[in-house]
Amino acid sequence: MSVCFILNPVAGRGKALGLEKTLMERAAVKFPGALFLRTESRGHAIRLAREQSTKHDTVIAVGGDGTIHEVVNGLMGGKAALGVVPVGTGNDLVNALNIPFEIDAALELISQNKPRPIDVGQVNERYFINGLGVGFDAWVVKKSFSIKKLRGNLVYLYAVLATLKSYSHSVLNVDIDGEKKQRRLFMLTVGNGPSLGGGFRLTPEARLNDNRFDICMIHQMPTMAVLRNLLRVYSGSHVKDPRVEMSRGQSLAISSDQPFAAHADGEELGYDLTVLNITIHSGALNVHCRY
Q1: Which among 83, 113, 143 is the end of a domain?
Q2: Of the candidates 113, 141, 164, which is a domain's last residue?
Q3: Which domain range does residue 267 map to?
Q4: Helix, strand or coil, per DSSP, at residue 69
């Protein structure tokens, strides 16, 4: 198997860089002659993955959800499968795909398990593999990038609480498979996988290989109601709240007369958007996983 590793040295607050030597030593046993590349800036993994997508059987992302997001965008249209050695903050996709966190186990999975086809979403010209958010959680993503002293799920939890002070709602026109509606929404989530933001199970029934999105629309509600539902989101029981509207579909169009914010896989799409067109590509990417 011809393999290329793309390592994000700042993933996991720098943890990935500290593991680089160990990873190279372990990989030399499983994948002799493997190519190792290191990203240098945001967006670099896309270019690296695109360059390697026709040269290798598997391109392995070493990092978190953000690194995986970039590598996926580079692999689309190529022949290479996706492998993952998880070293990140959120790791929602890794958990959904049952990819082990220990280096040797992750490498063993890649070397021994045949890759499986996974659905990939597309928003305008960008691809995403796990999920997309409009409204509140997009502002949470922006806040999380400024938090330097916390790690893991605490980053997202702190960012959520900080963002609650300044955010209210967005008025969105939502078209799901041709069914049009206008909503005053606290947030809208398009889930390919079940969770975002480090364990927030906003679309708990979502499957990565069912050729459809699960869509969660949380209507505008008072801050105290948001806080109560925040606890429920970890278990997915927020869906029982009548102000939470769940749906499924293969294509969405989201628009508004007022600019709104959005993210894909925890990566910023923008904060002054007015139109998003979202579609799903069934089984578009082969991934080494236990799904």
Answers
A1: 113
A2: 113
A3: 126-285
A4: helix
Neighbouring CB atoms inside 10 A of 50's CB total 17
Write the CATH number for 199: 2.60.200.40
Same domain flag for 225 and 259: yes
Which residue positions in the chain have pLDDT lower than 50? none
Predicted TM-score of the model (pTM):
0.92
Q: Is residue 180 part of a domain?
A: yes
* One domain, residues 95 and 142: no
- Answer yes or no: do 53 and 152 share one domain: no
pLDDT, tens digit (0-9, with 9 covering 90-100), for 157-205: 888 888 988 888 999 999 999 999 999 999 999 999 999 988 899 999 9
Concatenated DSSP letters for 217-245? EEE---HHHHHHHHHHHTTTGGGGSTTEE
Buried b (16+ CB within 10 A) or exposed e, 241-271: eeebbbbebbebbbebeeebbbbbbbbebee
DSSP, res 200: B
- What whole-number distance in Å separates Cα of residue 91 and Cα of residue 50? 23
Whether residue 15 contacts residue 87, with contact meaning beta carbons closer than 8 Å, is answered with: yes
Give the sign of the dihedral formed by CA 264, CA 10, CA 145, CA 64: positive
User: What gap in Å lies between CA 2 and CA 15, rounded to an integer?
Assistant: 26
Residue pair 249/166 in contact (Cβ under 8 Å)? The answer is no
Q: What is the DSSP string of 23-38?
A: HHHHHHHHSTT-EEEE
Domain count, the chain: 2
Phi and psi at 168, nearest 5°, equal -120, -75
**Burial tier of 279 (Cβ tally within 10 Å: 0-12, 13-18, 19+):** middle
